[in-house]
Design brief:
single chain; 50 residues; mainly alpha; 58% helix; 0% strand; elongated; YehS-like
Length: 50
């Protein structure tokens, strides 16, 4: 996931990514925003299509 976001030129640190997968009540929980999802899909498209 980190490599996919890096391919989309959207730098995200590993702790920021792990915060997305935490339980909703956790103190370091972070919801996935539109910009992050958009750049993830962009990077995934670049990776699959080559």
């Amino acid at each position: 996931m980190h490599a996919i976001l890096k391919a989309a030129e959207f730098p995200v640190s590993k702790p920021e990514l792990s915060a997305l997968f935490r339980k909703v009540g956790h103190t370091n929980y972070r919801a996935c925003g539109d910009q992050l999802l958009r750049n993830f899909l962009k990077g995934l498209t670049l990776r699959v299509r080559g």
